[in-house]
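Researcher: I'd like a candidate sequence for this fold, 142 residues long. If you have to choose between options at a position, lean toward the conservative one.
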């Protein structure tokens, strides 16, 4: 079975390395690209045509919300928002991300990414495997 081709869009080197290590433990997932911001992410989406995208919300140049809107308008792809800005209390951010076309959200662990726990790793892998089965439709830019 083909691996789930995953693109990571995240401005923190520490976070991106942790996610990549976590995802590389799954025989079902392959990280095919890493972008530092939404602009770079859009270029990689066009070049690599990933099956699933994980993006942060808070990034320079183009934030995750703008990035999600552009991806969904031009290259509809299941998106998982992986961010500090989507804790359970961040209802507005979660709503905006979902409205923009994200399929799911996952809060970064509050332990400043130091506690890359097995449970977070398992949750991330399961979410990506589920997202890879979802069909998403284009959402025109407004």
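Model: Candidate sequence:
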């Amino acid at each position: 079975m083909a691996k789930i081709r995953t693109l990571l869009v995240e401005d923190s080197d520490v976070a991106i390395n942790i996610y990549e290590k976590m995802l590389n433990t799954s025989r079902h997932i392959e990280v095919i690209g890493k972008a530092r911001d939404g602009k770079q992410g859009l270029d990689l989406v066009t070049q690599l045509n990933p099956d699933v995208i994980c993006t942060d919300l808070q990034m320079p140049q183009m934030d995750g919300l703008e990035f999600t809107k552009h991806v969904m308008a031009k290259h509809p792809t299941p998106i998982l928002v992986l961010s500090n800005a989507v804790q359970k209390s961040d209802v507005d951010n979660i709503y905006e991300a979902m409205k923009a076309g994200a399929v799911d959200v996952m809060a970064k662990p509050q332990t400043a990414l130091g506690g890359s726990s097995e449970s977070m790793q398992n949750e991330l892998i399961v979410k990506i495997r589920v997202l890879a089965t979802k069909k998403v439709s284009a959402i025109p830019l407004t």
